[in-house]
Amino acid sequence: MKNVHQIHRGRRDALIAAMREHSGGGLAVVPTSAEVARNRDSLYPYRHDSYFYYLSGFPEPEAVVALVAGSDGDRHLLFCREKNEEREIWDGFRYGPDAAKEIFGFDEVYPIAELDHRLPDLASDRPALFTPVGMTSEWDRRVAGTLNDVRARVRTGVAAPDAIVDVRGVLDRMRLVKDAHEIALMRRAGEISSVAHARAMAATRPGMHEYEVEAELVHEFLRHGAQSVAYPSIVASGPNACVLHYRENDRQMADGDLLLIDAGCEYRGYASDITRTFPVNGRFTAPQKAVYEVVLAAQLACLAAVRPGVPFHDYHTVAERVLAEGLIELGLIAGPLDAALESGSYKRFYMHRAGHWLGMDVHDAGLYQEKGASVALAPGMVLTVEPGLYIRPGEGVPDEFAGIGVRIEDDVVVTADGVENLTARTPKTVAEVEAACGSGNR
Length: 442
Fold this sequence. Notes:
The protein is α+β, with helices and mostly antiparallel strands and 442 residues long. It has 2 domains: 4-173, Creatinase/prolidase N-terminal domain (Creatine Amidinohydrolase, Chain A, domain 1), CATH 3.40.350; 177-438, Creatine Amidinohydrolase (Alpha-Beta Complex), CATH 3.90.230.10. Helices cover 38% and strands 19% of the residues. It contains 13 helices and 21 strands. β12 and β13 (270-271) form a beta hairpin.
């Protein structure tokens, strides 16, 4: 079985092959993320750039991958920080060029301080330069400086690349289909997040604040080896559940509220993304249950619709149809169903898509539509399935439904004959949810 660094080298080889197919070869240069100051001399927790990490597996800042697809052969290069005993005392271990070359499978590794000196030589006489164009203004200036350095050498007989290609287009297509290693990591991320959601259900009580439940989630993420949250957790009680990207997480929860939690951990660079909605007191009211059952029916129908060869947007259409039918039955919109779908009246209560790609980023790389057509699903693609209803108070909304917000979200990988639900352990039916809420001896 390949080790993880052989997997990263295989991805670099695949990118080199794509460079040859696109432009007959060239130079690819992909930097990682910069460290960002939080305030004064404190930094935000460091997180690598996903494209860089996909190619390298290298976790440190101040690093660049360079790949040469040349007539004289292929080269895998890494630029990284040098060993520095003083900085390691303060900030921790650094690989340094020698260890990085041996461990991460590069042909050549140089100090990052040599990047500007070596890039013009690497770019000379290459037909194209592949790089993340517009990633940052600083990186664009560096790329422009390299090209100008090569152009200044024209009298020596070298030529600068004729084309600059945004390498993310090629990498997006590669990242869209996950390999077995990636799926295993995402499976673990889903398991950890499922346990965390169940813990939140068991711990929640009327009178608690949303941030107390958020703390339960983070505790479980870290306790099981996740490195961080995959995105800021949404812990939205009562009317806050009708705010799609609610972030404050500071409301005190009341008896009779629903609590919508949209949260997932990041495990070894890969995200999970789960949403569950449950009663703060452990029991759904009749109106809450009625809305919940509509959303659950839509989510189950969506899961059944996801399979290889089906256009990505098909399961969104399924969600719209089931939710609109449910809204008619609840008396929240007028029928008949086809007229409601054509008019879009359901969008007052359901205004987002039924899911998105998932991977190293929570809204992961990859097109949804290409050449005017929805991308067809294929084995190895990972996506979320997350219909919802958000019934904000307003004209024509009965009091018993006003302020109810419900979303149910799972992460699935497309298989040869359907899907594998990576977050299936998370309580979801009304009976499962109420039992999980009761497990804390409420």
